[in-house]
C-alpha cells in the first residue's frame, strides 16, 4: 500500500513518519494509542467489525441455515440452525460462526494491511465455512500456535483442566492413578493431563 494514501487519512495534521515514510499515529497521538501494537489492534478490530456486517457473510449465513428442532425447552418448536463443517454436529445459529478457510493473517505493520483486507473482506463464498463456537476456538488456537487441529483440541482441554483449582486437579489426577510426586507442580500436572487426555 502506498504510504501517501495513508497520509491522506490525516490531512489536517502533520504526522510523524517512520523511516519508510509510513505514518506513526501512536507517536502523534500517544494519549490515544500507547504504542504501535495498540494502534494495529484497534485497526484489526475495526476491520473485523466491518466483516461482521459484510453482505457476503450475511448472505452466506442465510443460504446455509435450515430449520432445526429447538434444543431449548422453552420457546418455538423450530429455530434456525446449521451444521458445523468440522465436527458435523447441528447447532442453533447463535452457536454458529463463519470461518475463513484461509485465515486473514497477521496485521502488525502497514505492509500487512493490503493482504489482510483482501483475505478478510474480499473473499468468495467458497472461501468460507460454518463452524460451531467450540471448533472455531480450536481452529484459532491451531493457527496461533502452529499445532494441528487435533493437537490444538488436546491443548485447549489441557489448559481448561490446569485452570481448575489445584486441589481439584490433584483429586482428578490421583483418582486417575498418578502419584503425588508426579503432580507436585503445574508443569508436572500439565504433563499428566496431556497423557491422560491424549490416551482417552
SSE arrangement:
Elements: H1 3-7, H2 25-28, H3 36-52, H4 55-64, E1 66-69, E2 78-83, E3 90-92, E4 96-100, H5 110-121, E5 128-132, H6 133-145, H7 149-162, H8 166-175, H9 186-199
Antiparallel strand pairs: 1-2, 2-3, 4-5
Helix pairs in contact: 6-7, 7-9, 8-9
Can you characterise this structure?
- It is built from 9 helices and 5 strands; from the N terminus they run ααααββββαβαααα.
- Helix 6 crosses helix 7, helix 7 packs across helix 9 (186-199) and helix 8 packs across helix 9.
- It has 200 residues and is mostly helical.
- It has a domain at 147-200.
- The strands form 2 sheets. A 3-stranded antiparallel sheet has the order 1-2-3.
- Strand 1 and strand 2 (78-83) form a beta hairpin.
Whole-number radius of gyration?
23 Å
Compute the average pLDDT: 90
Oligomer kind: single chain
The major pleated sheet works out as:
3 strands, antiparallel
User: Strand arrangement, largest sheet?
Assistant: 1-2-3
Question: What's the short story on this structure?
Answer:
Helix content is 50%, strand content 12%. The protein is mainly alpha-helical and 200 residues long.
Features of this protein?
flat; 200 residues; single chain; 12% strand; disordered N terminus; 9 helices; mainly alpha; 3-stranded antiparallel β-sheet
